Amino acid sequence: MELGIKGKKALVTGGATGIGEAICLDLAKEGVQVAFTSRHPESIEKTLAKLGGPEAGHRGFVTDITLEGEPQRVAARVLAEFGEPAIVVNNVGDTLGITDPLCPISDWRRVFRLNLEVHVEINNSFIPLMRARKWGRIVNISAGASMENSGPVPYCAIKAAYTAYTRSMGRVLAPDGIVMSAVLPGVVFTEQGHWAGVLQERPEHATKYLEERTVLKRFGRADEISPMVVMLCSELASFCVGSIVPVEGGQARHYFHFNGV
Domain range for residue 102? Predict the structure, then answer.
């Protein structure tokens, strides 16, 4: 299937491991030049090698994107050293281990910063360029927890805001040829992710969770999420304005409907 994005440039935040890495690899297979971010230089080097390196047109940027002003600095570096991305995938996100529903407001702000604020700042840096080009794709990696009570309260609440932002902003951007959408992964195992730690420290909890909460009785894989993300980055996604797409193996138990009003 021809996706129509060969030769385009993409930025993937949090792209050196897990779902982000799978997205980078699948985009590269479609002929996209990929820039990606990570806090860890060693992870960047490993993923960059898998992509084919700078000689293939790919770049990795070491950054803690949650620092004040860092999304804007990253955007400036990407433009100066890589070029203008027509595709942005906002992948960074985590609970930060904040599970107390009565946690201090400072902890709420940390969850908000990582899971929503930095994405808005990244998008705001590139949307004017996409508008001038009359073409762009922005895919926000949210979570099934944005649609149901599944996880810590701060994380669920901020992911719900992230999904609502996607739906609302998608309508704003559509007349300019920019398609914003979101993918909601289910429980996915990655080597450096949350469930890797759970399997090591509380394997009985992981077994119970998979048995009681999932249909397939297993974790998802990063490469089961990335193909949907790449499709939403493509020419084929032209009618996916504000689309919210769960990719979670039937895990979620909610009904939801967007009527486009």
Answer: 9-191+221-247
